[in-house]
Structure prediction request, 154 residues.
Amino acid sequence: RLVSDWSSDVCSSDLAPAAPATRTPVMPEGLSRQKKEKWRRCAELYKTYKKETGAEVSELAGEVRKTRGRLDRLSPQEKLDLCSKIHQLIELIEQLIQERREYSENECDEFDWFQEGTTEAERKKRHAGEVDHVKGQEGNMRGVLKKLQEKGVC
Prediction:
């Protein structure tokens, strides 16, 4: 791994969150009215962070990833575009982190979205790991941006 090669600091798994869910959450039967309202709120939060913002992060990360190894061949405008996309990606990742925090603060891990039989504790642990992964993405992109700034690209 070359120290000066910014692209080697970010691999595809670092840039993209887990594949967007293709399944739709299923409301369990027998919930009280209050729990149904909470389930609906949590389903909206889930949809926002997983299918909307998460999908945007994946798409933009893919665009950034395509430039790997081509930095020396980019035109000045393409370099500016790359820097702009990285800034935008960092903002989206920050938004995704906030959305995931809101999901957790609303105790949405109470629900087994896909009736997989996992416990709330298991879902909380998995969710915390996903949040840590997204935070790692943010750190990686900040590192890439810093290296590009040091090279005078951004």
Observations:
- Helices lie at 12-15, 33-66, 76-105, 120-150.
- The chain is about 65% helix and 0% strand.
- Residues 1-21 have pLDDT under 50 and may be disordered.
- The CA atoms of residues 15 and 61 lie 6 Å apart.
